[in-house]
TrEMBL record:
Stated name of the protein: Glycosyltransferase family 62 protein
Species whose genome carries this gene: Wickerhamomyces anomalus (strain ATCC 58044 / CBS 1984 / NCYC 433 / NRRL Y-366-8) (Yeast)
Listed GO MF terms: alpha-1,6-mannosyltransferase activity
GO biological process: cell wall mannoprotein biosynthetic process; protein N-linked glycosylation
Top-rank taxon: Eukaryota
Subcellular locations according to the entry: Endoplasmic reticulum membrane; Golgi apparatus membrane
Membrane-spanning parts: 24-47
Key words of the record: Golgi apparatus, Membrane, Signal-anchor, Transferase, Transmembrane, Transmembrane helix
Family, similarity comment: Belongs to the ANP1/MMN9/VAN1 family.
Pfam families the UniProt entry points to: Anp1
Mode of membrane association: Single-pass type II membrane protein
Length: 450
């Protein structure tokens, strides 16, 4: 109890004593007033509304009671503000899709503050970002507009390309993850405010996501929570596939592997080089499973993370170094666990990352395109040869059948005598020259080659 409250309490007690000393001054009204004051005092103590400093008379002072921003599981009903962080690199092509999702968000837009970090981009990410923000912030429907928006630009000299195969090669993983960790740390440290209750991380290249994503994650009341992340595939690759393998539960195999590695090593999931035998959130998906089912996690992926802001404010962040043999979001999950926070994933609640072809996929697609052209050419040739064949080797049996009927139509075939030819004497046949009396004349010699 603070000094001012104690003062008030003493005043009431003194007044009560002075009243009781003079028994003649006790009146029913006095007792009633005293009781009302006492009850009011007790209620204030119970509700914890003891004393709120008021700095409105002091220029340039903002006061925040940080216990009001702890993050409730129904934050949207308590006007809780969400800091929405988006790291961007060469993301111009994804931004229209990203803002399509932003417009649909059901969490009150005015309670969402947006924060972007644009790095090492060679496309017009910044310009496209500006245009999309302008469109949404000038929407005639004010409910569409978001709260505060901050954009930061900072290059880290990322040399690994932003193509699918560049990013996902095994060698690229350690350096890339450490750099991304630094980028994420810059982003949240410069943008989180005392009045933020939640921090949400989202990649720009998510293709399908429920508009209720914030409420869907928040209502679980976890300190850190992620959905399952899959990606669609072309039919020839099997239609769909788990995408984010960074969300997992620690395993005995993982711990043993970690012990064998040097202190700067970074284990990355989904590569044969590191067999951890960890249960992955992605592989536990049942398309018909209950989306509310939770799974405790140790490492998490960064495509879509909702965390209580206090997680960051109490010192958790994205290790840009090897922490328990991990970096970035996977190490963030482990760090949060070490700090005693709850970290969970939803195996049957899925959002969909875009499909980007790998360089092998591109080669296969090129082969498929060539094969399609070859088959087309082949079928044209076949048609051509079929035509020639059918014309050159016309089947006239049907025609002959008809002709035969016509030829014999006036003939009673029953009356046709059987003609018998006697060939018995054929071998004795004597050749008679057709020239008769000119038999001395000689037939011209037949030479087939002339
Ligand atoms: N600021 C910043 N953002 C990045 C960088 N690399 C990727 N991003 C963004 O971070 C998010 C995740 O990156 P992405 O390459 O899609 O990761 P992946 O899907 O896990 O391979 C996307 O929104 C990217 O635009 C970077 O070096 N700096
Ligand atoms: Mg991505």
């Amino acid at each position: 109890m603070n000094y001012k409250t104690q003062n008030i309490q003493n005043q009431y007690i003194n007044r009560f004593l002075s009243i009781t000393k003079n028994k003649y001054s006790i009146s029913i009204i006095g007792v009633v007033i005293t009781l009302i004051i006492l009850i009011n005092f007790i209620v204030q103590v119970v509700l914890g509304q003891l004393y709120v400093p008021n700095f409105s008379s002091v220029p340039s002072v903002d006061f925040f009671d940080l216990k009001n921003y702890e993050g409730l599981s129904d934050g949207w009903q308590h006007e809780e503000r969400v800091l929405f962080c988006v790291p961007l690199r060469d993301a111009a092509a994804h931004l229209p899709m990203f803002f399509g999702h932003m417009k649909n968000l059901t969490y009150p837009h005015n309670l969402i503050d947006l924060s972007f970090l644009v790095s090492d981009s060679s496309d017009d990410t910044m310009e496209v970002l500006k245009q999309n923000l302008k469109d949404i912030q000038t929407d005639s429907n004010k409910a569409m507009r978001f709260g505060e928006i901050e954009i930061f630009e900072k290059d880290f000299g990322q040399v690994i390309g932003q193509g699918f195969s560049d990013r996902h090669g095994f060698e690229a993983q350690g350096p890339r993850r450490k750099l991304m960790a630094r980028a994420r740390n810059w982003l949240w440290t410069v943008s989180v405010k005392p009045y933020h209750s939640w921090v949400y991380w989202r990649d720009a290249d998510v293709e399908t996501v429920p508009p209720t994503i914030l409420e869907d994650l928040m209502h679980h009341g976890k300190d850190v929570i992620v959905p399952n992340v899959w990606r669609p595939l072309p039919d020839w690759l099997g239609n769909q596939q788990p995408y984010d393998l960074n969300s997992w539960q620690e395993s005995e195999g993982g711990l043993q592997l970690a012990k064998t590695l040097g202190e700067d090593a970074v284990i990355v999931e989904g590569y044969v080089e590191y067999a951890t035998w960890r249960p992955h959130l992605a592989y536990l998906r049942d398309p018909y499973g209950d989306p509310e089912v939770e799974m405790d996690l140790d490492g998490i992926g960064g495509v879509s993370i909702l965390a209580r802001a206090k997680v960051f404010k109490t010192g958790a962040g994205f290790p840009a170094f090897s922490f328990e043999k991990h970096a970035e979001t996977e190490a963030f999950g482990k760090l949060c666990k070490r700090m005693g926070y709850s970290v969970a994933g939803l195996p049957h609640y899925v959002i969909w990352h875009i499909y980007e072809p790998s360089s092998d996929d591109l080669k296969h697609m090129e082969w498929m395109a060539k094969e399609e052209a070859r088959q087309l050419e082949e079928s044209k040739l076949k048609q051509f040869y079929d035509k020639i064949w059918s014309e050159g080797f016309e089947d006239v049996r049907e025609d002959w059948k008809n002709d035969r009927i016509n030829i014999f139509k006036n003939t009673d075939t029953n009356k046709i005598k059987n003609v018998k030819v006697d060939w018995s004497d054929a071998d004795n046949f004597q050749y008679k020259s057709p020239l008769g009396k000119d038999k001395d004349k000689v037939l011209a010699a037949f030479d087939p080659s002339s």
